[in-house]
Give the backbone structure.
Amino acid sequence: MIKFKAALSLILDSVEPIGDEDVKLTDAQGRVLAEDVYAKDNIPGFDNSAMDGFALKSSDTSWAAKNNPKVLAVIKDIRAGGIPKKILRHNQASRIMTGAMIPKGADCVVMVEQTRKIQSRPKELIEVYSKVSLGENIRRRAEDIKKGELIIPGGTKLNCAQIGILASLGIPKIMVARRPKIAILATGDELVGVCQKLPLGKVRSSNTYTLYSQVIKCGCIPKNLGLVKDNPIQLEKKILAGLDCDIILTSGGVSVGEYDLVKGILAKIGVKIKFWQVAMRPGKPLVFGKLKNTLIFGLPGNPVSGIISFEMFVRPAILALTGQKEDSKKEVEALLGQDVEKKRGFRYFLRAKTRWEKGGYCTTLSGRQGSAMLKPMSLANSLIILDEASGAVKKGTKVKVRLLD
Ligand code: AMP
Ligand code: MG
């Protein structure tokens, strides 16, 4: 039996980067950037108006007030996209639209709402009812993004705003990590498919679907290898069918039972077994190995064990494969809301509800902690992590909590 951290290290040591591919921006959502992106332009590229209003000289409005309006002559309309050519002088204003370029000579913009037209064209006049300060309502050149700055580091999972930045910078295609392909195989004589009748003694393979959803959530491509009986020949055939993938996940059949065949089959087909059995709860019966470039996780069959093993081992492997860093905000400290039993020597991952209360996190168990019980897992938004050295923990103790998303 190996300790959790040592197991994770062995997994991460086995990971080799997956390689990159070019994608269009329309395909970039959720993809992991494979290169640093530096801004090749300033954004905005020019001083422009943040409002529909009038560009003017702020000093002209020094004494402007509701009962002492300042009268200005409107010399120009500046539309978004246009280039104002006239230089603005004292006692003049230019009507300006949001996003339009600030004319030379102007140093601020007054909102339409603080003005009133008192004479129409050709000699248009407006009154300004309040003092406007220098720079007010002007979006300065480069105030958002400066030319040359590292704007999106490699390893970032792209969101809509970052994709918007790439578009603003005129980058139509980017290099991203290839999406890992992950095979999912559920093993067990007792398993039936979700659409099949459920004979007495059988269970539906929920793990196929929990794993499938976790794989998709991590941005990977699932390959469902279906169900297989605890039969060495069929098992071997099915596992071999996953070797075109970056990762194979099997579920079940890795414990110490007479029909737990997965580890033996993996060894038989040449998988280099890196470890078997981890000192953790749930999730003890887990086997990990590598064959050529495929990482193979023999996950335990108990539904909650599978989910937690994925979260704690498979997900970090996917992050490493694709060059991502773990979010440092995922693990927080919380005040334990109840006493908790614990056996020393094992790392515990307890299903919990964690909430922010009076300036700190508080956490309580989301239900019973059976490794086959999906309901408390479904109610949990977090895992309380108690390390190997810890014994039973009392209410009010500070504990480590991993927030699930
Ligand atoms: P095993 O790891 O094969 O010993 O299975 C442990 C427990 O998990 C047993 O109660 C199995 O019936 C259950 N189990 C195994 N595979 C699945 C699956 N794909 N979906 C739901 N439960 C499963
Ligand atoms: Mg089994």
Observations:
- The mean pLDDT is 97.
- Residues 188, 252-253, 301 surround magnesium ion (ligand 2) (CB under 6 Å).
- Residues 303-321 form the longest helix (19 residues).
- DSSP finds seven helices and 26 strands in the chain.
